[in-house]
Amino acid sequence: MRAGSRAIQRIGAASALPANLRGGVVAIGNFDGVHRGHQAVIDTARAVAEREGRPLLCLTFEPHPRSVFRPQAPVARLTPASMKARLLGALGVKAVVEQPFDLEYAAHPAEIFVEETLLRDLGAAHVVVGFDFRFGARRQGDLPFLTEAGARLGFGVTAVEAFADEGALVVSSSRIREDLMNGDVAAAAGLLGYRWTFEGVVGHGAKLGRTLGYPTANMMLGEDGVLAHGIYAVRLRRADGALHDGVASFGRRPTFDNGAALFETYLFDFSGDLYGEAASVSLFGFLRGEERFESVEALVERMNRDSEEARALLSGVGPLSELDAAIAF
To answer: What is the CA radius of gyration of the chain?
Structure first.
């Protein structure tokens, strides 16, 4: 894998692809989480692109197709579009095509997807997919269909087998969501190949932390159903790239107001103003679950211990991979 801080083009539809990117190698998938299985697909596509001297593209779909088909139970996204693009760019992808997905698009027959999206719009020279890739109305398109279409219409097709972890279990976004909801950010990182990271804008809160001696950078997580409430050892990256270690609380503040879930990060040895600034936060460890304390004094005492534990944990961390180094170091 080749990771770095490469810029990536985000293109809002296949039909809007610039002429200089046509004829590329196209990796197709939702890539939610850009986990180790997804990275295997990207690695394979990049090898083909380098061998053939072609641009490397990803074709994804927005919003997540499962959320379109089941709007009453939308997918808790591990990586919204902007974070996904950042990760794909770090993996060497030149451009990500965020194809709008709705019921009308989903109703297109598999042959139309091949002829219009892949050939007319992208001019794909080679397509790389997971072994279980399905597409088109009623999921009628599968790997044999795509392979036959490629042979007939003149583009290559490569399928990547399922990626299993060290326990011989297939890596999946659903497993990662389960780990995060259980607060097991270490297990999630093992499946992702990097520390799970989210992005947001620092906003104003009730400023309770400031009164306790712990001023915090407050962010909305966006997906309240993706992470366990609790206390975490974290690293925050500012818009200018500066990194700051800290300890964060995600939850509803049961000692005070039990309000809307908020991610509140206290940065060690920092006194600046982050209000209105875009930032990203990487999770390195889960310290404990959210608790209600009988007094402010008891809460502050526990916060002091949390800070010490987070400092100790973060003092010895190193990157899990090149991608982790690009995102969290």
So the answer is: 22
Tokens 């709007």: give the residue: 71
Helical packing angle, 173-181 and 185-192, nearest 10° = 160
- In the chain, the domains with their CATH numbers are 9-160 (3.40.50.620), 173-328 (2.40.30.30)
**DSSP SS3 for 78:** coil
Query: Do residues 15 and 22 lie in contact, with contact meaning Cβ atoms separated by under 8 Å?
Result: no
Asked whether the beta carbons of 223 and 196 are under 8 A apart, the reply is no
pLDDT mean values, one per 10 residues, the chain (329 residues)? 65 98 98 98 98 98 95 93 97 98 96 98 98 94 97 98 93 97 97 97 72 80 82 96 96 81 94 91 97 90 96 97 97
User: Is pTM beyond 0.90 here?
Assistant: yes
Task: Please calculate the CA angle 112-58-121 and round it to the nearest 5 degrees.
Answer: 35
